[in-house]
Protein: MIF4G domain-containing protein
Amino acid sequence: MSSWKNLLLKIGDNCPEYGNSDDLKDHIETCFGVIRRELEHSFDDVPHYIINCAEQIPHKIPLYGTLVGLLNLENEDFVKKVVETTQRKFQDALDSGNCDRIRILMRFLTVMMCSKILQPGSLVVVFETLLSSAATTVDEDKGNPSWQARADFYVTCILSCLPWGGAELIEQVPEEIERVMAGLEAYLSIRRHTSDTGLSFFEEDDESGKGLVEK
Structure:
């Protein structure tokens, strides 16, 4: 495996590639220096590999987002390719219903927003598009309420992005994110609430367990 690929794969790990150091700042600086030089030879390969790493090792997404943010200061064309490739993969995931990829790429987009790569408004557009789709799905007249699980998933994806970039969104686009939050509340108010009939067996029994014995 190429040295630059190894560095991307092992970033954040206590390993020989980084001199057995735990210092994340050193990891990012080391990886940044190598990737910056590698772009002269592997311009088309690096974006795909970074995104693949983000998909396969999602807990390292903040490190990859920071790295791409630094590269953005040196090579905007490269970062533009990263963004375009991520957006294309995200759309493909939506079209194919690949839930894991949708969730992870939304997190990556959020982290790139925090690294000043994406405009906050662009991320809000993604949120609002998914929220609109979710609301339409559960609408009794216009949608298909039987697909509520998919709508719930979209809403969950939006909510799961907030710990990664909510503070930045509130600071930079407070009105837009407030609109998203209002939309989330509206969705929760119209979605169908169903109880699992399988649990009714336990609900009818008292805490002593007598009902269970009798049945």
